[in-house]
Amino acid sequence: MLKLLKDNDVLKFILLLSIASGIGLQGWRTIFNNFAVSEVGINGTWIGIIQSVREIPGLLTLLVIFLTIIFTEYQIISFSTIILGIGVALTGFFPTHFGLLFTTIIMSVGFHYFETTRQSLILQNFEKKDTPMILGYFKSISAISNIIIGIIIFILTSFLSMKMMFLIIGLTVIILACYSYKIKFNRVSPHIQHKKMIFKKKYWLFYVLNLLAGARRQIFVVFAVFLLVKHYN
């Protein structure tokens, strides 16, 4: 894997943006519920509304097909990460119900378009035998980023307000994403991206598992953490 990383600029590019995205999403998710409850005074109904609206950009990621007609996927993934960073950075400046809804949508657009494009680029640029290892590698990198940002937030809570932490995390993501534009590629993708939607009956189990995974996320990641903050402080 290290040899592959050393010789492949595309892998370095995706790795940098994966770290940036991991910092942004985990940072936002760690602070969000505390900020929503203590600063905005949000309740269960509103957390349901915000998190439901948060998934709309995920539903609309099919529109990335049309974006690829105008932009390269390398441009889309970098710009999506910048949008993610902007959404996180602005969160602390809008401590209202609708302000939280607004910044969450911005963050969500960036994250969902980043994630969609990242998977596409990995599948395009690497052989089928290497793809599982590379996907697992990026999953590990995301987990490490989550742990590190969690520790940093734990330390910074004694010195900074949540507003400032949102801003610092968002700016970090934006800076890393902007730096990604400087990476030059020394290879061409061996697999050409389709410019159309593809549905296949044999993939039905994959579709169902993704639907169930989304339901699990809403129940556990969203409402379980909100319950800890709201009812157990």
Overall average pLDDT: 84
CATH superfamily: MFS general substrate transporter like domains
Count up the helices: 10
User: Would you report the number of β strands?
Assistant: 0
Q: Which structural class do the helices and strands define?
A: mainly alpha
CATH topology: Growth Hormone, Chain: A
Q: What is the percentage of strand-forming residues?
A: under 5%
Tell me the radius of gyration. 18 Å
CATH architecture descriptor name: Up-down Bundle
In whole angstroms, the N-to-C terminal distance is 43 Å
Percent of residues in helical segments?
over 70%
The major sheet is characterized as: none
CATH class: Mainly Alpha
Structural features, described:
The chain is mainly alpha-helical and 233 residues long. The protein has a single domain (10-185), classed as MFS general substrate transporter like domains (Growth Hormone, Chain: A). It is built from ten helices and no strands. The chain has helices spanning 2-7, 9-40, 44-54, 56-59, 64-70, 73-91, 97-125, 131-156, 162-180, 204-232. Helix 2 packs antiparallel against helix 7 (97-125), helix 3 (44-54) packs parallel to helix 7 (97-125) and helix 3 runs antiparallel to helix 10 (204-232). The N and C termini lie far apart (43 Å).
